[in-house]
Specification:
By secondary structure, this protein is α+β, with helices and mostly antiparallel strands. It has two helices and four strands; from the N terminus they run αββββα. A hairpin with a 2-residue loop joins strand 2 and strand 3 (78-88).
């Protein structure tokens, strides 16, 4: 193998390892945010609206866009009753809640 080819292979391998490492770190960080926000969201729906919910999906926004995680789910026992909750992951305060009208009318 020629020296140029070795250098090229080393550079390419280093790049792949660097990108993979960053992607793994990003995924772990987002997973930790979701794990911390999930019980907050469940408790919020329970205390504010007396509704038990389950979360099945999430979206973590980049901090430079807006430090927010949105959890998506449904009212426990009825998958057709979709809910969502937006939580600021710097303060872990609830910023927005969405769901069927009947949940909010019971306030």
């Amino acid at each position: 193998m020629s020296p140029k080819m070795r250098v090229l292979l080393i550079v390419f391998s280093s790049f792949v390892l660097l990108v993979s490492g960053c992607a793994i770190t990003y995924h772990v960080k987002n997973n930790n945010i979701v794990k911390k926000a999930t019980p907050i969201g469940i408790e919020y729906f329970k205390t504010e609206y007396n509704v038990t919910v389950e979360f099945i999906d999430s979206q973590v926004f980049a901090g430079y866009v807006y430090p927010q995680v949105v959890l998506y789910g449904y009212v426990k026992g009825d998958v057709n009753q979709k809910i969502s909750i937006a939580i600021n992951y710097n303060t872990y305060e609830v910023e927005n809640v969405g769901g069927p009208e009947w949940i909010f009318q019971s306030e």
